[in-house]
Amino acid sequence: WTEGTQDDAENSLTELAALAETAGSQVLEGLIQRRHRPDPATYVGRGKVEDLGAMVLSTGADTVICDGELSPSQLRNLEQRTKVKVVDRTALILDIFAQHAKSKEGKAQVELAQLEYLLPRLRGWGETLSRQTGGSGRGGGAGGGVGLRGPGETKLETDRRRIRNRISRLRREIKGMKTVRQTKRARRSRNAVPAVAIAGYTNAGKSSLLNRLTGAGVLVENALFATLDPTTRKATTSDGRLYTLSDTVGFVRHLPHQIVEAFRSTLEEVADSDLVVHVVDGTHPDPEEQVRAVREVLAEVGADRLPELLVVNKTDAADEETLLRLKRLWPDAVFVSAHNGRGVDGLREAIEERLPRPAVEVHAVLP
Ligand code: GDP
Protein backbone atom coordinates (compact mmCIF):
# COMPACT_ATOMS: atom_id res chain seq x y z
CA TRP A 1 0.00 0.00 0.00
CA THR A 2 1.29 3.50 -0.77
CA GLU A 3 0.26 7.14 -0.67
CA GLY A 4 2.38 8.23 -3.62
CA THR A 5 2.69 7.31 -7.27
CA GLN A 6 3.64 3.92 -8.67
CA ASP A 7 7.24 5.16 -8.99
CA ASP A 8 7.33 6.23 -5.35
CA ALA A 9 6.02 2.86 -4.33
CA GLU A 10 8.60 1.05 -6.42
CA ASN A 11 11.50 3.17 -5.13
CA SER A 12 10.33 2.68 -1.61
CA LEU A 13 10.01 -1.06 -2.14
CA THR A 14 13.47 -1.25 -3.72
CA GLU A 15 14.83 0.52 -0.68
CA LEU A 16 12.92 -1.84 1.60
CA ALA A 17 14.48 -4.80 -0.23
CA ALA A 18 17.94 -3.26 0.23
CA LEU A 19 17.19 -2.76 3.91
CA ALA A 20 16.04 -6.37 4.24
CA GLU A 21 19.22 -7.56 2.59
CA THR A 22 21.27 -5.39 4.92
CA ALA A 23 19.49 -7.16 7.77
CA GLY A 24 20.61 -10.48 6.31
CA SER A 25 17.43 -11.58 4.52
CA GLN A 26 17.12 -12.97 1.05
CA VAL A 27 14.36 -11.14 -0.79
CA LEU A 28 12.16 -13.39 -2.92
CA GLU A 29 9.28 -11.39 -4.33
CA GLY A 30 7.49 -8.06 -4.07
CA LEU A 31 3.83 -7.13 -4.05
CA ILE A 32 2.34 -3.64 -4.43
CA GLN A 33 -1.25 -2.65 -3.85
CA ARG A 34 -2.80 0.74 -4.62
CA ARG A 35 -5.42 1.79 -2.09
CA HIS A 36 -6.67 5.01 -0.58
CA ARG A 37 -5.76 3.84 2.88
CA PRO A 38 -4.48 0.66 4.47
CA ASP A 39 -7.06 -1.93 5.40
CA PRO A 40 -7.64 -1.42 9.14
CA ALA A 41 -7.66 -5.16 9.81
CA THR A 42 -4.99 -6.56 7.54
CA TYR A 43 -3.08 -3.57 6.08
CA VAL A 44 -3.46 -4.87 2.50
CA GLY A 45 -6.93 -5.67 1.25
CA ARG A 46 -8.69 -9.00 1.67
CA GLY A 47 -7.93 -10.23 -1.84
CA LYS A 48 -4.29 -9.25 -1.53
CA VAL A 49 -3.96 -11.19 1.71
CA GLU A 50 -4.90 -14.30 -0.25
CA ASP A 51 -2.34 -13.47 -2.95
CA LEU A 52 0.21 -12.95 -0.22
CA GLY A 53 -0.61 -16.32 1.33
CA ALA A 54 -0.22 -17.98 -2.07
CA MET A 55 3.10 -16.20 -2.63
CA VAL A 56 4.38 -17.38 0.73
CA LEU A 57 3.47 -20.96 -0.17
CA SER A 58 4.92 -20.91 -3.67
CA THR A 59 8.22 -19.25 -2.69
CA GLY A 60 8.68 -20.97 0.64
CA ALA A 61 9.19 -17.58 2.30
CA ASP A 62 9.39 -17.50 6.06
CA THR A 63 8.78 -13.79 6.56
CA VAL A 64 6.60 -11.03 5.10
CA ILE A 65 8.00 -7.51 5.34
CA CYS A 66 5.58 -4.60 4.93
CA ASP A 67 6.68 -1.16 3.80
CA GLY A 68 4.97 0.84 6.51
CA GLU A 69 4.18 0.83 10.18
CA LEU A 70 1.55 -1.76 11.05
CA SER A 71 -0.73 -1.56 14.04
CA PRO A 72 -0.34 -4.39 16.53
CA SER A 73 -3.63 -5.95 15.38
CA GLN A 74 -2.80 -5.67 11.67
CA LEU A 75 0.44 -7.46 12.40
CA ARG A 76 -1.31 -10.21 14.31
CA ASN A 77 -4.04 -10.66 11.70
CA LEU A 78 -1.57 -10.84 8.84
CA GLU A 79 0.50 -13.40 10.72
CA GLN A 80 -2.57 -15.53 11.31
CA ARG A 81 -3.55 -15.43 7.64
CA THR A 82 -0.13 -15.95 6.09
CA LYS A 83 1.14 -18.35 8.78
CA VAL A 84 4.58 -16.74 8.71
CA LYS A 85 6.31 -13.98 10.63
CA VAL A 86 5.27 -10.47 9.63
CA VAL A 87 7.65 -7.56 10.10
CA ASP A 88 7.00 -3.92 9.36
CA ARG A 89 9.41 -1.25 8.15
CA THR A 90 9.99 0.09 11.64
CA ALA A 91 10.88 -3.30 13.12
CA LEU A 92 13.22 -3.96 10.20
CA ILE A 93 15.03 -0.65 10.61
CA LEU A 94 15.28 -1.18 14.38
CA ASP A 95 16.77 -4.60 13.73
CA ILE A 96 19.44 -3.15 11.44
CA PHE A 97 20.26 -0.42 13.92
CA ALA A 98 20.62 -3.09 16.60
CA GLN A 99 23.04 -5.07 14.43
CA HIS A 100 25.16 -2.04 13.62
CA ALA A 101 25.31 -0.02 16.81
CA LYS A 102 28.84 -0.12 18.14
CA SER A 103 29.22 2.44 20.90
CA LYS A 104 27.72 1.92 24.33
CA GLU A 105 25.46 4.89 23.80
CA GLY A 106 24.36 3.71 20.35
CA LYS A 107 23.48 0.29 21.73
CA ALA A 108 21.50 1.75 24.61
CA GLN A 109 19.64 4.06 22.23
CA VAL A 110 18.66 1.21 19.94
CA GLU A 111 17.54 -0.99 22.81
CA LEU A 112 15.39 1.84 24.11
CA ALA A 113 13.81 2.29 20.68
CA GLN A 114 13.18 -1.44 20.37
CA LEU A 115 11.53 -1.69 23.76
CA GLU A 116 9.32 1.30 23.04
CA TYR A 117 8.27 -0.36 19.82
CA LEU A 118 7.71 -3.66 21.56
CA LEU A 119 5.69 -2.45 24.54
CA PRO A 120 2.33 -1.82 22.81
CA ARG A 121 2.81 -4.91 20.67
CA LEU A 122 3.39 -7.31 23.49
CA ARG A 123 0.93 -10.16 23.39
CA GLY A 124 -0.27 -12.51 26.08
CA TRP A 125 1.14 -15.99 26.25
CA GLY A 126 4.29 -17.24 24.62
CA GLU A 127 5.83 -13.85 24.25
CA THR A 128 8.81 -13.69 26.57
CA LEU A 129 11.20 -10.84 26.89
CA SER A 130 13.99 -12.88 25.36
CA ARG A 131 16.94 -11.07 23.82
CA GLN A 132 15.89 -7.45 24.19
CA THR A 133 16.37 -7.37 27.92
CA GLY A 134 19.50 -9.44 27.94
CA GLY A 135 17.87 -11.93 30.26
CA SER A 136 17.99 -9.70 33.29
CA GLY A 137 15.23 -9.74 35.84
CA ARG A 138 13.25 -12.53 37.33
CA GLY A 139 12.16 -15.78 35.78
CA GLY A 140 12.78 -14.85 32.15
CA GLY A 141 11.57 -17.54 29.79
CA ALA A 142 9.67 -19.51 32.40
CA GLY A 143 6.64 -19.17 30.16
CA GLY A 144 4.22 -20.33 32.80
CA GLY A 145 1.31 -18.31 31.52
CA VAL A 146 -1.55 -16.66 33.30
CA GLY A 147 -1.94 -17.45 36.95
CA LEU A 148 1.62 -18.36 37.85
CA ARG A 149 2.77 -14.86 38.70
CA GLY A 150 2.07 -12.77 41.76
CA PRO A 151 -1.54 -12.48 42.83
CA GLY A 152 -3.57 -10.78 40.14
CA GLU A 153 -0.62 -10.24 37.83
CA THR A 154 -0.58 -11.95 34.46
CA LYS A 155 2.59 -12.83 32.61
CA LEU A 156 1.80 -10.01 30.21
CA GLU A 157 1.62 -7.51 33.05
CA THR A 158 4.89 -8.77 34.51
CA ASP A 159 6.57 -8.44 31.13
CA ARG A 160 5.17 -4.95 30.62
CA ARG A 161 6.38 -3.84 34.02
CA ARG A 162 9.84 -5.24 33.40
CA ILE A 163 10.04 -3.50 30.07
CA ARG A 164 8.95 -0.21 31.62
CA ASN A 165 11.61 -0.55 34.31
CA ARG A 166 14.24 -1.29 31.73
CA ILE A 167 13.08 1.69 29.65
CA SER A 168 13.47 4.05 32.60
CA ARG A 169 16.89 2.66 33.36
CA LEU A 170 18.03 3.05 29.77
CA ARG A 171 16.70 6.62 29.68
CA ARG A 172 18.72 7.44 32.79
CA GLU A 173 21.86 5.84 31.39
CA ILE A 174 21.54 7.65 28.08
CA LYS A 175 21.05 10.93 29.89
CA GLY A 176 24.29 10.31 31.77
CA MET A 177 26.19 9.55 28.59
CA LYS A 178 24.79 12.69 27.03
CA THR A 179 26.32 14.77 29.82
CA VAL A 180 29.74 13.33 29.07
CA ARG A 181 29.32 14.19 25.42
CA GLN A 182 28.17 17.70 26.25
CA THR A 183 31.31 18.26 28.30
CA LYS A 184 33.41 17.22 25.33
CA ARG A 185 31.40 19.54 23.15
CA ALA A 186 31.79 22.43 25.55
CA ARG A 187 35.54 21.93 25.42
CA ARG A 188 35.37 22.13 21.68
CA SER A 189 33.45 25.39 21.70
CA ARG A 190 35.87 26.84 24.26
CA ASN A 191 38.66 26.04 21.88
CA ALA A 192 36.54 27.60 19.16
CA VAL A 193 37.23 24.83 16.70
CA PRO A 194 34.60 25.01 13.98
CA ALA A 195 32.63 21.80 13.50
CA VAL A 196 31.37 20.44 10.21
CA ALA A 197 28.70 17.73 10.22
CA ILE A 198 28.36 15.44 7.24
CA ALA A 199 24.72 14.55 6.89
CA GLY A 200 22.92 12.74 4.13
CA TYR A 201 20.82 9.83 3.16
CA THR A 202 21.99 6.35 3.96
CA ASN A 203 24.52 5.05 1.43
CA ALA A 204 25.04 8.50 -0.12
CA GLY A 205 28.78 8.14 0.50
CA LYS A 206 29.30 10.11 3.72
CA SER A 207 31.97 7.79 5.14
CA SER A 208 33.77 7.63 1.79
CA LEU A 209 33.84 11.42 1.58
CA LEU A 210 35.05 11.71 5.15
CA ASN A 211 37.89 9.38 4.17
CA ARG A 212 38.68 11.47 1.12
CA LEU A 213 38.63 14.71 3.05
CA THR A 214 40.74 13.57 5.97
CA GLY A 215 42.56 10.49 4.74
CA ALA A 216 41.21 8.57 7.73
CA GLY A 217 40.34 4.92 7.57
CA VAL A 218 36.64 5.01 8.39
CA LEU A 219 34.78 1.82 7.69
CA VAL A 220 32.99 1.99 4.34
CA GLU A 221 30.37 -0.65 3.74
CA ASN A 222 28.14 -1.17 0.80
CA ALA A 223 25.25 -1.62 3.09
CA LEU A 224 22.62 0.69 4.35
CA PHE A 225 23.31 2.02 7.82
CA ALA A 226 27.02 1.40 7.89
CA THR A 227 27.29 4.56 9.95
CA LEU A 228 25.41 4.59 13.21
CA ASP A 229 27.83 6.06 15.61
CA PRO A 230 29.21 9.44 14.79
CA THR A 231 32.87 9.51 13.83
CA THR A 232 34.77 12.72 14.29
CA ARG A 233 38.03 13.54 12.52
CA LYS A 234 40.26 16.54 12.60
CA ALA A 235 41.04 18.48 9.49
CA THR A 236 42.94 21.65 8.72
CA THR A 237 42.28 24.36 6.20
CA SER A 238 44.90 25.39 3.66
CA ASP A 239 45.88 28.29 5.91
CA GLY A 240 46.29 25.99 8.89
CA ARG A 241 43.02 26.47 10.79
CA LEU A 242 41.78 23.39 12.60
CA TYR A 243 38.22 22.13 12.25
CA THR A 244 36.39 18.89 12.91
CA LEU A 245 34.41 16.74 10.49
CA SER A 246 31.78 14.36 11.85
CA ASP A 247 29.95 11.65 10.05
CA THR A 248 26.38 11.37 11.33
CA VAL A 249 23.92 8.51 11.58
CA GLY A 250 22.31 7.31 8.39
CA PHE A 251 19.04 8.87 7.38
CA VAL A 252 16.37 6.96 5.64
CA ARG A 253 12.88 7.65 4.37
CA HIS A 254 10.19 7.18 7.02
CA LEU A 255 12.76 6.90 9.77
CA PRO A 256 10.75 5.41 12.63
CA HIS A 257 9.97 8.05 15.20
CA GLN A 258 11.35 5.76 17.91
CA ILE A 259 14.70 5.97 16.15
CA VAL A 260 14.58 9.74 15.77
CA GLU A 261 13.70 9.93 19.46
CA ALA A 262 16.40 7.51 20.56
CA PHE A 263 19.05 9.16 18.44
CA ARG A 264 17.88 12.66 19.20
CA SER A 265 20.86 13.40 21.42
CA THR A 266 23.26 12.18 18.74
CA LEU A 267 21.41 14.06 16.04
CA GLU A 268 21.24 17.16 18.18
CA GLU A 269 24.99 17.31 17.94
CA VAL A 270 24.47 18.17 14.29
CA ALA A 271 22.54 21.22 15.44
CA ASP A 272 25.66 22.36 17.28
CA SER A 273 27.80 22.35 14.16
CA ASP A 274 28.84 25.40 12.22
CA LEU A 275 28.11 23.87 8.85
CA VAL A 276 26.16 20.93 7.48
CA VAL A 277 27.67 19.20 4.48
CA HIS A 278 24.65 17.47 3.00
CA VAL A 279 25.71 14.58 0.76
CA VAL A 280 23.34 13.44 -1.99
CA ASP A 281 23.71 10.28 -4.04
CA GLY A 282 23.75 11.38 -7.69
CA THR A 283 22.92 7.86 -8.87
CA HIS A 284 19.75 7.54 -6.81
CA PRO A 285 16.51 7.45 -8.85
CA ASP A 286 15.00 10.23 -6.76
CA PRO A 287 17.69 12.47 -5.20
CA GLU A 288 15.20 15.27 -4.46
CA GLU A 289 13.17 12.93 -2.29
CA GLN A 290 16.34 11.96 -0.41
CA VAL A 291 17.16 15.61 0.18
CA ARG A 292 13.63 16.22 1.45
CA ALA A 293 13.80 13.28 3.83
CA VAL A 294 17.13 14.38 5.28
CA ARG A 295 16.03 18.00 5.66
CA GLU A 296 12.93 16.82 7.49
CA VAL A 297 15.03 15.02 10.09
CA LEU A 298 17.45 17.95 10.33
CA ALA A 299 14.50 20.24 11.00
CA GLU A 300 13.23 17.90 13.70
CA VAL A 301 16.43 18.33 15.69
CA GLY A 302 16.72 22.05 14.99
CA ALA A 303 19.61 21.78 12.55
CA ASP A 304 17.72 23.40 9.68
CA ARG A 305 18.93 26.87 10.62
CA LEU A 306 22.55 26.00 9.93
CA PRO A 307 24.31 26.86 6.71
CA GLU A 308 24.08 23.88 4.38
CA LEU A 309 26.46 22.90 1.64
CA LEU A 310 24.85 20.46 -0.79
CA VAL A 311 27.24 17.92 -2.26
CA VAL A 312 26.23 15.64 -5.10
CA ASN A 313 28.36 12.51 -4.85
CA LYS A 314 29.00 9.52 -7.14
CA THR A 315 29.39 11.70 -10.26
CA ASP A 316 31.56 8.90 -11.69
CA ALA A 317 28.54 6.62 -11.85
CA ALA A 318 25.67 9.08 -12.39
CA ASP A 319 24.35 9.74 -15.89
CA GLU A 320 25.07 13.07 -17.59
CA GLU A 321 21.44 14.01 -17.96
CA THR A 322 20.73 13.62 -14.26
CA LEU A 323 23.83 15.61 -13.34
CA LEU A 324 22.81 18.46 -15.66
CA ARG A 325 19.34 18.48 -14.19
CA LEU A 326 20.72 18.54 -10.64
CA LYS A 327 23.15 21.36 -11.54
CA ARG A 328 20.23 23.43 -12.71
CA LEU A 329 18.19 22.50 -9.66
CA TRP A 330 20.96 23.19 -7.15
CA PRO A 331 23.30 25.77 -8.73
CA ASP A 332 25.33 26.15 -5.51
CA ALA A 333 25.93 22.45 -5.00
CA VAL A 334 29.40 20.93 -5.30
CA PHE A 335 29.72 17.86 -7.54
CA VAL A 336 32.18 15.20 -6.46
CA SER A 337 33.15 11.59 -6.65
CA ALA A 338 34.47 10.13 -3.44
CA HIS A 339 35.38 7.15 -5.59
CA ASN A 340 37.95 8.78 -7.89
CA GLY A 341 38.46 11.98 -5.94
CA ARG A 342 37.14 14.35 -8.58
CA GLY A 343 35.84 17.59 -7.15
CA VAL A 344 37.10 16.81 -3.65
CA ASP A 345 39.62 19.69 -3.67
CA GLY A 346 36.80 22.01 -4.70
CA LEU A 347 34.70 20.64 -1.87
CA ARG A 348 37.48 21.28 0.62
CA GLU A 349 37.67 24.89 -0.60
CA ALA A 350 33.90 25.31 -0.43
CA ILE A 351 33.93 24.04 3.18
CA GLU A 352 36.79 26.40 4.10
CA GLU A 353 34.97 29.37 2.62
CA ARG A 354 31.95 28.65 4.74
CA LEU A 355 33.71 28.07 8.04
CA PRO A 356 33.32 30.87 10.53
CA ARG A 357 36.36 33.10 10.53
CA PRO A 358 38.06 33.61 13.86
CA ALA A 359 37.62 37.09 15.22
CA VAL A 360 40.58 39.10 14.01
CA GLU A 361 42.45 40.99 16.65
CA VAL A 362 43.91 44.22 15.43
CA HIS A 363 46.79 45.60 17.40
CA ALA A 364 47.35 49.16 16.45
CA VAL A 365 50.89 50.26 16.77
CA LEU A 366 50.92 53.89 17.65
CA PRO A 367 53.89 56.05 16.93
P1 GDP B 1 27.29 6.36 3.87
O1 GDP B 1 26.28 5.37 4.32
O2 GDP B 1 26.65 7.62 3.40
O3 GDP B 1 28.39 6.62 4.86
O4 GDP B 1 27.98 5.74 2.54
P2 GDP B 1 29.39 5.01 2.32
O5 GDP B 1 30.50 6.00 2.31
O6 GDP B 1 29.48 3.87 3.28
O7 GDP B 1 29.20 4.49 0.84
C1 GDP B 1 28.14 3.68 0.45
C2 GDP B 1 28.44 2.94 -0.84
O8 GDP B 1 28.56 3.87 -1.93
C3 GDP B 1 29.76 2.18 -0.80
O9 GDP B 1 29.58 0.98 -1.53
C4 GDP B 1 30.74 3.09 -1.51
O10 GDP B 1 31.79 2.37 -2.11
C5 GDP B 1 29.83 3.73 -2.56
N1 GDP B 1 30.33 5.04 -2.96
C6 GDP B 1 30.67 6.08 -2.14
N2 GDP B 1 31.09 7.12 -2.86
C7 GDP B 1 31.02 6.77 -4.16
C8 GDP B 1 31.32 7.45 -5.40
O11 GDP B 1 31.78 8.60 -5.48
N3 GDP B 1 31.09 6.74 -6.54
C9 GDP B 1 30.62 5.47 -6.54
N4 GDP B 1 30.43 4.87 -7.73
N5 GDP B 1 30.34 4.80 -5.41
C10 GDP B 1 30.53 5.45 -4.22
Which features would summarize this protein structure in a list?
3 domains, single chain, Rossmann fold, 45% helix, six-stranded mixed β-sheet, 12 helices, two-stranded parallel sheet, 367 residues, binds guanosine-5'-diphosphate, alpha/beta
Separation of the first and last Cα atoms: 80 Å
What fraction, in percent, of the residue positions are helical? 40-55%
**CATH architecture designation of the largest domain:** 3-Layer(aba) Sandwich
Biggest sheet: strands side by side, in what order? 4-5-3-6-7-8
User: CATH fold name of the largest domain, please?
Assistant: Rossmann fold
Total strand segments? 8
DSSP helical segment count: 12
Order of helices and strands: HHEHEHHHEHEEHHEHEHEH
- CATH class category of the largest domain: Alpha Beta
- What's the mean pLDDT score? 80
CATH homologous superfamily assignment of the largest domain: P-loop containing nucleotide triphosphate hydrolases
Strand proportion, as a percent range, falls in: 5-15%
Report the biggest beta sheet as strand number plus sense, adding barrel if it closes: 6 strands, mixed
The small molecules bound here are:
guanosine-5'-diphosphate
Oligomer: single chain
Radius of gyration: 24 Å
Shape verdict:
flat
Low-confidence stretches: 124-147
Number of domains: 3
